[in-house]
Amino acid sequence: MSRGLWAEALLILALILLGMALGAWLGNLWIGLSVGLALVVLRLFWVVMRLALWLEHPRSPIAGRYAAGWLGHLGQRLRRAHLAQRRRDRRWLRLIREYRRAADALPDAVVALDQHHRILGFNPAARQLLGLRQRDLGLPVEHLLRQPDFIGFLRAADWARDVDVPSDYVAGQVLSVHMVPYVQGRLLLIARDVTRLQRLQAMRQDFVANVSHELRTPLTVLSGYIETLLDGDEDEVEALPQDLVRILNHMHLQSDRMRRIVEDLLLLSRLETTSPNEEQIELVHVPMLLNAIAEYAEHLSGEGAHHIVREITPELRMRGVTRELDSLFSNLVFNAVKYTQSGGTVTIRWFKDARGLVFEVQDTGIGIAPQHIPRLTERFYRVDVGRSRTMGGTGLGLAIVKHVMLRHHGRLVIESVLGQGSVFRCVFPS
Ligand code: ADP
After folding, report:
1. Which residue range(s) make up the domain with 89?
2. Which sign, positive or negative, has the C-alpha torsion 21, 22, 25, 26?
3. Which end of the chain is more exposed for a tag (fewer CB within 10 A), N or C?
């Protein structure tokens, strides 16, 4: 205990003794004791008053003779705690300011929203990109960003994906909007200007589409001539030098491959740049499509080389674009045949369950190592380029599958074990 506290304790003891002495002098110990205790209470009251005054003005020193006493001791402790708290507060304030400055310096618009999507705050970029003003604080964000795609995105509340929306504020600008949940249902809306990126993407798509389109006619002419030469009279073909026949056969194979790449590129660019129009969407008789594909797969596989098993629910149809679904199913079934050794099994399934409408192709083929699976739907991504070419692959099949799935609001799941086989599953909303 400090000296101050000892002194205070001695003072209290002295007051009690004084009271008792007074009691002895008066001949009534109780009266004396009561007076002594009353003095102690008064002293304590006075100390508390001083302390309360000091706490109201903590900057004022506890001056005079009390500085060394009990009050001084308690005061100093409180003062130290108070100063430490102030240091902590200052540190927090500095940190908050730094975060604020960092958020202000971001080129992306950042808007904090509460659980009802009302605006709590935003950074300067949000003024420029979204046109937000101070008076918008507290308003629901959908009152200010009214694009139907954005409203749909908010309602779906699937924050794993982002959405590209044309800006309401700057004409011709495209924003990519992303939501990040933080505390207690609050969200950070992050909007980025992707106009340039989209323009570049559009340029790339146009370029690929134009080149493919321009190549289509000369290629058709070339393969036509080669086919004419090879399909001529048997005597005429036999009359040609053997080397020339070999070269022509090779040219035929390669021009055919180029034609298929061009066709796939044109299909891909159509899938990427247009959205399916209502007239193309119909109730597709999927079992009919799948049976035709299975028959073609048997033909492709040659004399009973693969077991093609059909587990197709009859009469189960779905809404979609027939040509696109045909392309999707064929790509997956033909891949299963291409990448399964002779004698293997390819199972084609079409059914409905709790997940929705499910199309599944399972094979007992070469399988795919896990590191390749996330990249398979990229254009020209092939696990084994040589093998894909020998099998007549273009490297675009799964990219087409991905786009058709997107256009049909479906989900593609790939499961595979190297050396054992793969399952390609397409789940469509029912
Ligand atoms: P490709 O024309 O080369 O078959 P795809 O886009 O259809 O191109 O497929 C991309 C790659 O995915 C293929 O090159 C192959 O390596 C792999 N792949 C696709 N389907 C299967 C499958 N059923 N089994 C094993 N590998 C597959």
Report:
1. 3-101
2. negative
3. N
